[in-house]
Amino acid sequence: MIARSRQVALALTVALAAGAACQARDHEPPGPGRPAPSLAEPRGFTLVASGDVLPHDTIIDRARFDAGGTGYDFRPMLAGIRSVVERADLALCHMETVYGANGDYTGYPAFKSPPEVAPALATTGYDGCSTASNHTLDDGADGIRRTLDALDRAGVRHAGSARSEEEARTVTVLQAGQAKIAHLAYTYDTNGIPLPEGQPRAVNLIDEGRILADARAARNAGADVVVVSMHWGTEWQDAPDDRQLTLARNLTAARSEGRPDIDLILGTHAHVPQAYEKVNGTWVIYGMGDQIAGLMTNHQGAKDPRGNQSTLGRFTFAPPARPGGRWEVTKAEFVPQLFDVDAGRVVNLNRALAQGADVRAVRDRIRDVVLSRGAAQDGLVMGE
User: Which PANTHER family match (predicted)?
Assistant: First the structure.
């Protein structure tokens, strides 16, 4: 069995304007004993997605310690989830912050993270990240440029922010097996920071009409599956708010020629895990929670452990039963995670529990929230 089909993955871009042709970059050939997939027989793929990477000062300090005091190493933080991420055909993260340079790194409230985060994400197995958040403009256009440059150097694709108008009009499409997956990303706000002068599309803001237009353009240009990352919701609220619910209903209801315009919605921002739900036949994760963050303080001023709890979503897609049909999710899973702020490590809670760690209570709390809108009845299960 091929453990990781994105060994043959292509990085594609599809112009949103009038469906320009896709162009593939060089890719690795199948390795020994790994025959190329047959074009005549499409096969399915697995997609995993995880929540906010939010390096507070303590996280930056930990990465410096893990690097031996010289530079920054974020790889050990993510090592506990690497086996889940790297086995997927396609893995998407959420890079909430922008990167600084030359040691000018800061946590809350205006984040500038070390660019060493990017290669750590790549080493963990992530193929792409959403980069639209309320912190995308924390260091203006320079912050966006440094962030996207670093992700490019690491080979991690990105969606949601842009260095130029041309880039803003281009949607990232990644290959998983024989399926082309369009990744779109949007944020509710930028903490009131205005867009850089002359760059009206430096970051994608949530607008229902624009999201659907982008999704349809990507589909028309050849995307088989359209995934939308949404930085939305009310912080510290376990339940999705009214705007999330309304947008989820409207976006998943939209169809073109009888086919849904959007195939999966991935939510971030709330700092806490939120429910998964199948809406109009499409899976929606309202909020995955913070995958990496320092010890969090909620709006009541209390240290809140929920800010270090999260989930990783894993979806298995099967090829359409007929040409031009929808790639269907045949298996939906969630993996409960915890960021151990003392150890500075992401923990796969089910694996930790199997190894004897006393984490059942937090695992079960996350499970209850995830299933709170009836997702179990639609087949969502807890994975490892």
Answer: PGA BIOSYNTHESIS PROTEIN CAPA, POLYGLUTAMINE SYNTHESIS ACCESSORY PROTEIN RV0574C-RELATED
Residue 310 placed within a domain: yes
Beta partners for residue 338, in sequence order: 309, 347
Closest CA to 59 of 96, 102, 85, 91: 96
pLDDT tens-digit map of 80-105: 999 999 999 999 999 999 999 999 99
How far apart are the C-alpha atoms of 351 and 339, rounded to whole Å?
14
Answering whether pTM is above 0.85, one says yes
Q: How many CB atoms lie within 10 A of CB 126?
A: 30
What does the block give as tokens for 193? 């920071």
Which residues are paired to 47 by β-bridges? Answer: 90, 315
Dihedrals phi, psi of 32, to nearest 5 degrees: -55, 130
CATH number of the domain encompassing residue 249:
3.60.21.10
User: Could you list the residue range(s) of the whole structural domain that residue 274 is in?
Assistant: 42-382
Whole-number Å distance between alpha carbons of 119 and 107: 19
- Is residue 16 assigned to a domain? no
Q: What one-letter code names the amino acid at 17? A: A
| Cα distance between residue 17 and residue 15, in whole Å | 5
Pick from 10-24, 49-63, 94-108, 360-374: least confident:
10-24
From CA 246, how far away is CA 286, in angstroms rounded? 12
In a domain, 226, yes or no: yes
SS3 state of residue 184: strand
**Element housing 364 (H / E):** helix 360-370
In a domain, 147, yes or no: yes
